[in-house]
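Continuing from the previous page of notes. For each protein in this section, the sequence appears first, followed by its structure tokens. Read the first protein now.
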Amino acid sequence: MRRRTMIVNMNQLRSFYTAAKLNSIAKAAQQLMVTPPAITNHIKRFEEKIGIRLLVRDGNSIRLTSTGQGVLQKAEQIFKEVHEMEGYLEDISSGKSGELRIGCPEAPLKNLVPLIEIFRETHPGVKIIFDQGSNTEMIKSIADHRNELAVIRYRPNNSKLKTKVLWQEEVVLIAAPKSVHWPGSKVSVTQLSQIPLVLRGEGSAVREVVLEYLRRFKVTPLIAAESVSTPLLKELVRHDSGLGFVQRGVVEDELKDGTLRLVQIVEGHPVIESGIAYAGRRELSPAAWAFLRLLDKSWPV
């Protein structure tokens, strides 16, 4: 006798899966934008169809049966594949052409370029338009709709933008090889109030991180010079205008060839977190959304 095929109702399965993941009928209803009774009804019909109890109510939460645990694991695989299929179909249907406007400050650009090159291999028809500026300018560029995406300093309390954190980098202290301001190889952060410093200009994420770091130790910096340009800042330090703070990645060559040297901070160096920011899913073009999906594959949560 031929075995009867059971047809799974995806709406019922999704209701069960969401409630089980969130451990709440009410939260599942909120996420799926339906009423709690609708979720309860879907799960009841699903259980009736298969003839097995999958979960029981336990006060305000729910508890899975052993069978429910197994069904949840299978459902997780199914909806992961559904999500991947949705993304794949969207990519092939509308993400292969158009424009991608993306902004990036000077220093993180070397981290962004390899991602852009990977994206260009799969989306050769997309025209990529780069924009540069300070961290503050990049944030404003999204609000002004000049850029869809921008590399910015990640700040957890920024509720206006969604940000996917991509990398962390040390902000290091550099000096001229024979600096008269500080000939030593190590320094305490408390001593930096006595040493001339060269900082990035207003709006720079590195400047924000450095000043926040110094405030933690109640240190008022002695700012000798400022520059919006990283190459100019390094040149000022090389000519011993003061010690400077830069991201490690932008000074590796100079540290290797000896034109600049690293000064270790005894208390540890500050760290900057950077990520790709955007206003919201509805604000993005298909090309920008495809780029974010590339990041999801490269930096899974």
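Done with the first. The second protein uses the same format. Note its length before scrolling.
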Amino acid sequence: MKLDRLFAIVMLIVNRKRVSAEELARYFEVSVRTIYRDIDAINLAGIPIVAYPGKNGGFGIMESFKFDRHVLTPDEIFSIVTALKGVGASVAGKRARDTAEKLTTLLPPDERTRLKKREETIIIDSSPWMYPAHLKKRADEILRAIEECRVVGMSYVDGRGTTAKRAVEPMTLVLKGTVWYFFGYCRLRGDFRVFRISRIKSLRVTGERFARRPMEYSPEQWTDNWTSKPPLDLVLRFKPRARVRVEDYFLPAQVRRRKDGGFDVRTRYPEDEWVYGFLLSFGEDVEVLEPRRIRDLVRARAEKIHAIYEKDVD
């Protein structure tokens, strides 16, 4: 941890020219005395940091000292920094910001100015709307457990609403769409599983360490472990006013425009509660044509909803 902090201090000073001990202490959440000890260690390592007095003073790199910056092109650095800021918006924020800061120092001053202007042209934010702070904290805890190879104990609610205590060896943090999951070996099931972080009711990173199990990293693996439900082939008919949502959710090859302005859609989803809710979210703008079983299920649920609203509020 200290080596990471020393390197980050150097990068911050190079990038900002002058940084006070108080600013560094606040940034790294350590004492001012610790920062002074870190500066001494950096000097001993051969990087000359000097203290400049006055109102705009602070620590700075000796002006005659030069870094070899020819590692990445400015365009490559811009792409990496943009991606890091997007990830940092939802998980591992401080680490992502530190890494982006380090990369920025590889640019000469004129390119840094250009980078700031280019940052206005594209923003990547992987965090969901109104992302709860406790879920972000939980994702950070799981990431720490993955890096330290520590078993996590948790109370987890599966897709059927069943709550169970689980001991899991976390392997990978996964962002799918705007939802965070983690992939790990579930000791209760004796196999790898995908867990949605928002369904974790309680989490504890234990002191028990584990050896990572052999596994393949591929998109197919995530898909295979996403659901145990077989795929469901759907034929849907949408009214014309549903055009925007149809274009948002379905590929052009799945959609056929009808003469009345409506749309027929052929698509495939795993059958679960999510897909039922998805169909009902269109209200009267969608009709399930096939399969008949799903058509009957949606009708039955719509009738139950109708029965609720026929009653007066107590």
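What the second structure shows: Residues 82 and 122 are 8 Å apart (CA to CA). The chain has eleven helices and eleven strands. We return to this in next week's lecture.
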